[in-house]
Amino acid sequence: MEMELPRAIEDTSGTAVASARPSFTEFVLHAGDGVPLAANLHAPGGPARGTLILHAGAATPQRFYRPFASFLAENGVRVVTYDYRGVGRSRPASLRGYRATMTEWAHLDARAAHAYVREHFGDRPVAILGHSFGGQLVGLIDEARDVAGAIMVAAQFGYYGNWPPLGRLRYGLTWRALVPTLTAALGYLPGRAGLGEDLPRGVVEEWARWCLHPDYLISGHPDAAARFARFDRPTAFYSFTDDPLAPLRAVRALRVRLTSAKLEHRRVDPSLVGAGPIGHHGFFRSKCREPLWTETLAFLTDVFEGRAPRKVRRPSPSLSPFESWDVRDEDLLADLRGCRSRP
């Protein structure tokens, strides 16, 4: 049984800091159907106050999150990361003919990470961080509701109609024409098509179906609507004014589904936090250590210790050009209640 992290070692914000050197271990995580997945364990040098499971974005290998995970481990939080099947160190030598879907990423891979943590570290509280697609997992797996708290970073509903007109045109062509053409010709989607990481054919074909439907992943998983609505954990929800992959309408389309969550939406204007451009991935780069990583550590400290998360106060961001087209939360809620008959 692990002991509580000593509270005598604190930074100026009152967040406990571990003093010993953390460790990094690579291991194999077995998915629900036996598929081996590459995983990493970032462990504090001393007792861990809790465990964070990091659910990655769709085309983002776990190695990208290592600086952020190391920071948390240095400060007393155990972190488990993993690569979905077909991505990073979990991909085969060739993706041609390799079977994988986003549904399998959720139902088999993400659930395996939760099962591993429950088996090995179940005596301490658990939290999740979902980046982009990783945040959508709240609607796809029941295990997400068993956590002490959640952090969502650049998470959204990817229906292409949630983008402003030019983005809508671009992504409509991407999902209707580019993706089917490339995957039919190559047997997978190459990273050079714009995502930076090769993806299995089944993953992008399912993703395309979701992105072309107003209800996004709920169109393929009707039970997800109730799962989103039941999720009631304390949640820090980060989005960014310079993120072209998560415009505010797309962010709100996910956020309004989380009707039970104790949620604080932390909308970040990079110019007001002095971090330079952040976009869709910049939160996990070391330049965001202050203030974003330390905010995240404070949130985890609070939820692991059973306290209400402290509020974050920062200047309100101004709307970027692509956000001036956005709508209000009540408009989106009315849209969700109405008939989904438009294409």
Number of domains: 1
As residue ranges, the low-confidence spans are 1-18, 324-343
Category from helices, strands and their pairing: alpha/beta
SSE string, helices as H and strands as E: EEEHEHEHEHEEHHEHEHHH
Characterize the overall form. globular
CATH superfamily: Alpha/Beta hydrolase fold, catalytic domain
What's the architecture, going by CATH? 3-Layer(aba) Sandwich
Estimate percent helicity. Answer: 25-40%
Largest sheet: 8 strands, mixed
Indicate the CATH class.
Alpha Beta
Summed up, the helix count is 10
Describe, in plain words, how this protein is organized in 3D.
The structure is a single chain. The chain has 343 residues and is an alpha/beta fold. The chain has one domain (23-158, 222-337): Alpha/Beta hydrolase fold, catalytic domain (Rossmann fold, 3-Layer(aba) Sandwich), CATH 3.40.50.1820. Helix content is 32%, strand content 17%. It has helices spanning 66-74, 102-121, 133-136, 165-186, 201-211, 224-230, 248-255, 270-273, 289-304, 329-337; strands at residues 23-30, 36-43, 50-55, 77-82, 126-131, 149-153, 188-189, 199-200, 234-240, 262-268. It has an eight-stranded mixed beta sheet, sandwiched between helices. A two-stranded antiparallel ribbon has the order 7-8. Helix 4 (165-186) runs antiparallel to helix 5 (201-211). The chain is globular and about 50 Å long. The relative contact order is 0.13.
How would you summarize this macromolecular structure in one to three sentences?
This protein is an alpha/beta fold. It has helices at 66-74, 102-121, 133-136, 165-186, 201-211, 224-230, 248-255, 270-273, 289-304, 329-337, and strands spanning 23-30, 36-43, 50-55, 77-82, 126-131, 149-153, 188-189, 199-200, 234-240, 262-268.
